[in-house]
Write a structure and sequence with these properties.
Layout (H helix, E strand, L loop, with lengths): L1 E3 L4 H12 L5 E4 L2 H4 L4 H6 L3 E5 L7 H6 L6
Parallel strand pairs: 1-2, 2-3
């Protein structure tokens, strides 16, 4: 399974997983600002998160052109 991190979800999933005794392997897309709060990465590992994908964005048109983003 692949999830997208949302504020609050990063804290709620580990709590519900522990309460219901449900563990499963999953991957997620995350934002750095959400994942760096307190123990979010460690807490997401407990219910089974084994991979977090993060993207990078740029405000530089030169960089966006080099990445072929197609923006102007």
């Amino acid at each position: 399974m692949i999830f997208r991190a949302q504020a609050g979800w990063c804290m709620l999933l580990p709590i519900l997983s522990k309460k219901e005794k449900i563990l499963f392997k999953f991957k997620m897309q995350g934002r750095v600002d959400l994942l760096l709060h307190e123990n979010n990465i460690k807490d997401l590992q407990e219910p089974g998160c084994d991979n977090i994908w993060m993207g990078a964005e740029s405000g530089s048109q030169k960089i966006l052109d080099a990445m072929d983003k197609g923006t102007r």
